[in-house]
Amino acid sequence: MHHAPNIEDQFLLRRDFLQRVGMGMGSLFMAPLLNAAPGSGGGIPMNPLSPRQPHFAPKAKRIIHLFMNGGPSQVDTFDPKPELTKRHGQELPSTYKTERKTGTAYKSPFAFSRHGESGLEISELFPHVAKSADELCVVRSMHANVPNHEPSLLLMNCGEARLPRPSMGSWMTYGLGSENQNLPGFIALCPGYPIQESQNWQSAFLPGTYQGTYVDTRKKEVDELIQHIRRDHIPDKEQRAQLDLLQALNRRHLERRQNDAALEARIESFELAYRMQMEATDAFDVSREPQHIRDLYGGGTQGRQMLMARRLVERGVRFVQVWHGNGQPWDNHDDIEKNHRRLAKESDQAIGALLIDLKQRGMLDDTLVIWGGEFGRTPVVELPTAGANAGKKNGRDHNHWGFTMWMAGGGVKGGMAHGATDEFGFKAVENPVHVHDLHATIMHLAGFDHERFTHRYAGRDFRLTDVHGNVVRELLA
Predict the structure, then answer these.
(1) Short-list 392, 424, 464, 453, CA closest to 58
(2) What is the CATH number of the domain that holds 191?
(3) Which position among 4, 48, 103, 476 has the lowest Cβ density within 10 Å, counted as fewest Cβ atoms?
């Protein structure tokens, strides 16, 4: 077959010749390593999003993280405290330091009842979620480091409160790749930007390919969700030819710059953007769902987000984070009864529908669903201070000493509550679970030994759990 000559080959320098020969020999030795999993001693695959095998068989092949921005109150949602009701309005015998001065015991304004065969106690705020009580693994003994939003958001999402670190979704995509090469491996469905903004889904020192793709779900139409997703002005064949030429020029540029990782990520993004034009239009268009499914999820931003999340993991996206509480967060320093009721009403039906829909489709067994915020709230009322809570005594302060999260599917035990806070719901006292322990457990469910799943950067092996964390085996099915 005749090939058009490359003009550069007519002026091949000795240095270029030796370099090409050396690289050719090196590729022979590197070939067996190209598809090895990161952190397992092998190299990076040719396609950074190609599916890879973890350390052992995973129970959770995909993850949906439902992030309740601002910190929901554990004693008003999934951790009932009868003693708090008895002591309402009284000084408690012990208090723990938070950001501000706090006052007397403040009972939950919401009733709790038992649900499912397990009899799991759940607040009246979540009647739809309660229908799947026997699927929930409720961790009532979570704790974090500080009672401040910014570091706690980064700790929960990235495993580190102060320094730039890859997010949990980036680690998962780095380790497992994606089952769909036409969509990003990690997508953040977020209406607006939260505190710390894109740091919550950053890839940090991991290759940029693994950073979360942000989608502003305040928009409803696919063309608004993802700009320039359609290409009405140019035929497919012509666009493919243009992109092939662009990629060839970019690859040549990359080779001359010693395969710079940031440049490599940018080149990959061009190719992914082209492939997304076909598949993303379908994945994000919830109007293609049957009416009874759309009715199950309900309307509003949360209904669309949850349905998008299901459609994305169904199409092979590895990690989807769904945000709730931006703009009007769960950070209720006052009017907690009114505000928590509103926030729960916005999200309950959609979350309940997601659990039911995944189970009906046979996907819940290998899809891990995680619910929670960056910390919880105090069982005592926050005292009125200027500019903080409008002089009211009906809200709660931040609380990192003890809070609640739950998981469902993906290899966890359903219908159970693990650990406990004290009798007032302030501090984790029984089987405490730190955020690092939660991350280690999630990694285990995804098939990774969190101590061996590392990335070398600046002369050190980094991991999501840093130098901490233990798998909470009591949560495993």
Answers:
(1) 453
(2) 3.40.720.10
(3) 4
User: Taking Cα atoms as reference points, which of 253, 275, 277 lies closest to residue 264?
Assistant: 253
pTM, two decimal places? 0.84
Look at 228 and 330; give whichever has higher pLDDT: 330
Residue 468: inside a domain: yes
Domain count, the chain: 1
- Residue range 235-249: mean pLDDT, rounded: 69
DSSP 162: S
Count of all residues that appear for the chain in the document:
477
- Residue corresponding to tokens 């082209």: 274
Ramachandran angles phi, psi of 138, nearest 5°: -90, 125
Give the DSSP letter of residue 361: T
> Residue 186 forms beta bridges with which residues?
319
Mean residue pLDDT of the chain comes to 86
Q: Is residue 252 part of a domain?
A: no
45: in domain: no
Separation between Cα atoms, residue 175 and residue 203, nearest integer Å = 13
- pLDDT for the residue 16: 53
| E strands in 315-469 | 319-324, 367-372, 376-382, 396-399, 403-408, 416-418, 420-421, 428-430, 433-434, 455-457, 460-462
Q: Which residue segment(s) compose the domain that 316 sits in?
A: 59-227+289-475
In the predicted structure, residue 44 carries a pLDDT above the cut 70: no
| Strand, coil or helix: 399 | strand
